[in-house]
Specification:
8 strands, N-(1-d-carboxylethyl)-l-norvaline Dehydrogenase, domain 2
Length: 320
């Protein structure tokens, strides 16, 4: 954790759920946070969300040094170690914002985007200091999920990557280096491979949504809190996994778009809890109760997971 006696400052751009939860991570570790939120009507909601997320991380934590401005030009840069952008996923908006930051931010401060679907290289294209732009991809709820991907764009230099990695590790996260700026980075590629097969299972009538969730939560997914998929197979036996893969892979779904099950719901405007209907129907009370249960479980799971723990030694070089 960061030394609470050392004053460090993070700038967060955008105070939606992601931006507020990122702020809480740093406040918990003694940092000051200066946030930019253009819509001043959202300021009170942002303060409330930051306070709630901080209380989930540390019930004894104070409010922290959290301040808000409406424009990048109002930001103060003294003591700033890192900037994280968490505005909506619109490339024109992000490019415009980073063009301003290129002029405003002093040299040496890494400028990170939290994009999950846009290429960092495209956001940074043409900017004079694109070498200090990289990706920090968090996962909702950002303050409760330890992992954060540290992603290199085509122009990101190694010093920027090293500094972002070290900062995220210092505030209690588990940083994951991603060496190439590819769609989905690392975790979302794995996640969407699973989701493609899950939707295919629903489309084929092989199982219900409840059974799919149970298979992951109480079957193979249950093991992942103790060991990731590669380590788990080293423990179980690579020969067995290889033989199973040879028989199963030819029958897996390889569609180039999400399955009809989710497509039909999205086309009907059924987006899940945010609209009151998805694979399940939700009242506002049910949605709040389920989300609270979900977050409590994540908090409990984090207490069991040894953050940063790795197998002894170093993995072999992968044959390409």
């Amino acid at each position: 954790m960061t030394d609470l006696g050392v004053s460090k400052t993070l700038i967060v751009l955008g105070c939606g759920l992601m931006g507020c939860d990122i702020a809480a991570i740093f406040l918990r570790s003694g940092w000051s946070v200066r946030a930019m939120e253009p819509d001043t009507a959202n300021w009170e909601r942002a303060r409330e969300r930051v306070a709630l997320s901080l209380s989930q991380l540390d019930p004894l934590a104070g409010a922290g040094k959290f301040s808000l401005v409406a424009t990048p030009e109002e930001l103060a840069w003294d003591g700033v170690e890192l900037l994280i952008e968490a505005v909506p996923e619109k490339i024109a908006l992000k490019r415009e914002l980073f063009a301003k930051l290129d002029r405003l931010a002093p040299e040496g401060i890494p400028l990170a985007t939290n994009t999950s679907g846009l290429r960092i290289t495209e956001i940074a294209q043409g900017l004079p200091t694109r070498h200090r732009m990289g990706g920090l991809h968090f996962f909702l709820p950002a303050h409760l999920v330890p992992a954060v991907e540290v992603v290199a764009g085509e122009f990101t230099d190694s010093a920027t990557m090293d500094k972002m990695f070290a900062i995220m590790e210092s505030v209690g996260c588990v940083p994951i280096r991603v060496a190439k700026d590819v769609p989905g980075f690392l975790a979302n590629r794995l996640q969407h491979a699973l989701m493609r097969e899950a939707y295919a299972i629903l489309d084929e009538g092989l199982a219900t949504p409840e059974d799919v969730d149970a298979a992951v939560r109480y079957g193979f997914g249950f093991r992942y809190i103790a060991a990731g998929p590669i380590l788990q197979k080293d423990l179980a036996g690579l020969d067995t996994n290889y033989a199973a893969g040879k028989s199963i892979y030819p029958h897996l779904n390889n569609a180039s778009k999400p399955g009809r099950s989710i497509e039909a719901l999205v086309e009907a405007g059924k987006f899940g809890t945010k609209t009151g209907s998805g694979f399940w129907d939700w009242t506002p009370e049910e949605a709040r109760e389920q989300r609270a249960k979900y977050e409590r479980t994540l908090i409990d799971a984090a207490r069991l997971l040894p953050l940063g723990a790795r197998p002894p030694g170093k993995a072999r070089k992968i044959v390409s």
